[in-house]
Structure formats: C-alpha cells, structure tokens
Write a structure and sequence with these properties.
- With 186 residues, the protein is mainly alpha-helical.
- It has one domain: Up-down Bundle (Four Helix Bundle (Hemerythrin (Met), subunit A)).
- Strands 1-2 form a two-stranded antiparallel sheet.
- Strand 1 and strand 2 form a beta hairpin.
C-alpha cells in the first residue's frame, strides 16, 4: 500500500494530458491575439484559468492541504497569495498611500488558508475583485512603455511580472494537485 494517489486524467484522447485539447477552455479558436498588449493579456488570462482549473472539483480540506512541511503552501494559499499580490500591484500603479494588505500579517495569505468553505469562497471573491481592480488600473495606461507609480515602473514590466507570478504559481499548483488526487498538469 502507498499513500500516493494514482496518476489519472480526465482526458481520453491523450491520457497524459489534463483535458483533451478540444475541451481545454484555454485554447481559443482561430488566430492568436494581435499586438503586444493583447498577447500579454492572453497569456495572463490563460494562467489565471489554469489556476482555477487546478482548484476545480476539490473540497475545502483538499484546497487547504499543505504541501511538504515546513511549507505553508496549499492551493487555497496560492489563491489568497495571488489576491494579495494583485492588490500589491495596484500599489505599484498608484501614487497615493498603499492599500492595506488583505490578510494582515506577513504570510497571512498562506497561514490563513484553512479548510473552511467560507474561507474558500472569500478567497475566490477576493481574487476576482483584486484581479478586476488591477486590470482596470492598468487599462488606464494603454502605452506599455508609460511609467507609473512612485517608482516609475513601466506598464510592460508590471504586465510581464504578473504573467511570471501566475506562471510560477501554476507550476506549484501542478504539484499540489498531483499530491491531492494524482491529476497532472499540461
């Protein structure tokens, strides 16, 4: 006997994939996006959707399950962390006082990721709200070379950094999900 979950996939055409390509909501029809801003937003959207896919079908206990001690990382923690990071990016764009942290203390995003449905629901609401707020703040600056905020960070740098952050954590989500039920990413 082993505690390791068996590897499995819901894909039927390519059993080593997460989902069949024709069922993958991240795959669009036709040509890819035109231009740099649309391409950056397309990649960001794909990673955001990937994170959601990694969390689908799991209950509060599974979402809050931590990886390997002493790490505090869990899928729910990642959702909360990315909501916190989205809020912080708004502070990079703003000239005024910074917005307060969502989860208070350092590492509060991960430490507060507990197996309660109310915490799960709140985390996804927080993430959606903060994503929308950051998207709206950046949409006011269509020139990717424009510098914003107190530090004069280029909009392009903020966009690329957002993609990098989601991509990095989607890799973590792949491993966390595989530990929970054996599903592997693509």
């Amino acid at each position: 006997m082993t505690d390791e979950p068996a590897r499995w996939s819901q894909a039927s055409v390519y059993p080593d994939m997460w989902v069949d390509p024709e069922d993958d909501p991240r795959e669009g029809e036709g040509d890819g996006p035109e231009g740099e801003p649309a391409t950056l937003l397309d990649f960001l959207s794909g990673y955001r959707m990937t994170l959601r896919m990694k969390c689908e079908g799991l209950d509060a206990e599974q979402l809050a399950r931590r990886s390997v001690p002493p790490s505090t990382m869990s899928l729910l923690g990642l959702v909360r962390h990315l909501a916190e990071v989205e809020r912080d990016w708004q502070n990079w764009i703003r000239d005024g006082d910074p917005l307060p942290q969502l989860y208070g203390e350092p590492d509060g995003d991960f430490l507060g990721a507990v197996a309660e449905q109310a915490v799960v629901d709140a985390a996804f609401r927080d993430l959606e709200r903060e994503q929308a707020a950051t998207d709206a703040a950046l949409a006011a600056y269509p020139d990717l070379g424009e510098r914003v905020g107190k530090d004069g960070t280029a909009v392009r740098e903020l966009m690329v950094h957002r993609i990098e952050e989601y991509a990095r954590h989607c890799g973590h989500a792949d491993l966390l999900r595989e530990c929970i039920d054996g599903r592997v990413g693509q």
